[in-house]
Amino acid sequence: MFWETITIAIYSIALLLIFMYALAQLNLLFNYLRARKRKDSCPKFDLSNPDEVPYVTIQLPVFNELYVMERLLDNIAQIEYPKGKLEVQVLDDSTDESLESTAAQIKKLQQTGLDIQHVTRVDRVGFKAGALKEGLKTAKGEFIAIFDADFLPKKDWLLRTVPYFKNPEIGVVQTRWGHINREYSILTRVQAFALDAHFTLEQVGRNSEGHFINFNGTAGIWRKECIIDAGNWEGDTLTEDLDLSYRAQLKNWKFKYLEGVETPAELPVVISAARSQQFRWNKGGAENFQKMLWKVLKNQNTSFKTKIHGILHLLNSTMFLNILIVAILSIPMLYIKNEYAHLKTYFIVMSFFVISTIIFFICYWFTYKSIYGGGFSRFFEYVGMFFVFFSIAMGFSVHNSLAVLEGHLGKKSEFIRTPKFNIKSLKDGWKDNKYLKRKISPNVIIEGLLMAYFAFGMYSAFIVGDQGGDFGLFPFHLMLFIGFGFVFFKSLVSKA
After folding, report:
1. How far is 40 from 366, CA to CA, in rounded Å?
2. Are strands 116-120 and 86-92 parallel, antiparallel or unpaired?
3. Is the pTM of this model over 0.85?
4. CA distance 286 to 238
5. Which of 148, 426, 443, 137 is nearest to 279 (CA)?
6. What domains are defined for the chain?
7. How many Cα atoms are found within 13 Å in the side-chain-facing hemisphere of 182?
8. CA distance 353 to 330
């Protein structure tokens, strides 16, 4: 009974942590719904008055972006803002032929009167954080707008974001990400589904109650004074945006989140690219938990509730580890349940934790409805999307859990950029992209084995016990089988 007891204890703790996270999401949902009823009373600059127009620098940190640089620069050149108060810095760490083609395009744009500079470095010290810090040394703007290479801000983006800085306490204005290729594939739809939840429920839910949120690395604008006061960009984690966000808010700078301002971007269309992005985000989240935990707990200007939400925010990525633990142990637990009759009461109590899934289902429905609208047909569509999303998210749990463990254990790794494709429709291809990895990750083998493992879990539902089987966990194992199967086969086809 020793190993059974250990299994039950670990399984119960992981379920409890997931439940606590679900309750936090539910609280964010209540915050989100309250916030949508409030009117925005934030003071704003009158940009029709030349005396109130501040100087803005747009920073474009790029590295080997051959396929999207022309699109990016053409888009930025269309931004509406007084030319005499706008500067563009292309922070280019590229080592391939894109460096030369970018330089040529920048020269053409300079001839149109646009103040655009090509900033290059000898090495990539600090990666993206290092490039942003280098550009800041010569930036003319009081405010620094940042866009990654796959983002396409609308013409009026600055006109809709800069005015909020009239409040001297605001250090950052962040906008919601949109998705130009949402409908490209199941993979892009799942990514969009997850990001939409973050950029509605979580960002609004935290920001509306004064809890810590994060600048998302792009599609936002900083007050230069805030960056300097918070200690400037640092490259010791893989999510320099989350790091600087917390350091700024710990120094009492306020963040303003604009759900109504959408900034379109391209989602990764190949699973290897999605893996790269997920690894960086999840490992960086764990690294920032290690870096920021005690700073958050010790900060005297932060309320207890904000500290709790902050800690859970920093632990976001660690939820994948709990999900993986629950998934793997669920099959032994199925056999334990049907072997030890005296544990019946325990398993009745444990069934309560299915409410975590119900909470996530409700929370995600409100975010889905806010973007696509309600109604029966939309709800029916949502149910299918939720099932697919949860299945594939669990299929990524091995990959993401390994990233989380590396982050918590302090293992350092390079900042691996996410390959861009310049893909908008099904007609666009990706297989000739020179930045794609051609080797299969060793993790794929584990994912294939887990697909088989959860197939065994479904089979076990028919044979356990002496009452004709136990199908309580069958839907869960089916989702895990589909999720790991999707990630496994897609990874083989896409050469992850």
Report:
1. 21
2. parallel
3. yes
4. 10
5. 443
6. 2-32+318-494 (no CATH), 44-270 (3.90.550.10)
7. 13
8. 13
Residue tagged active-site, from 196, 241, 243, 470: 241
Q: What is the phi/psi pair of residue 471, to 5°?
A: -105, 15
92, 93, 150, 243: the active-site residue: 93
Is residue 241 part of the annotated active site? The answer reads yes
Residue ranges of the alpha helices (H) in 299-343? 304-314, 319-339
Per-residue pLDDT 10s for the chain (496 aa) are 788 999 999 999 999 999 999 999 999 999 999 999 888 889 999 999 999 999 999 999 999 998 899 999 999 999 999 999 999 999 999 998 999 999 999 999 999 999 999 999 988 899 999 999 999 999 999 999 999 999 999 999 999 999 999 999 999 999 999 999 999 999 999 999 999 999 999 999 999 999 999 999 999 999 999 999 999 999 999 999 999 999 999 999 999 999 999 999 999 988 988 998 999 999 999 999 999 999 999 999 999 999 999 999 999 999 999 999 999 999 999 999 988 888 888 888 888 889 999 999 999 999 999 999 888 899 999 999 999 999 999 999 999 999 999 999 999 887 777 767 666 554 555 455 655 666 677 889 999 999 999 999 999 999 997 777 899 999 999 999 999 999 999 988 864 3
Beta bridge partners of 257: 174
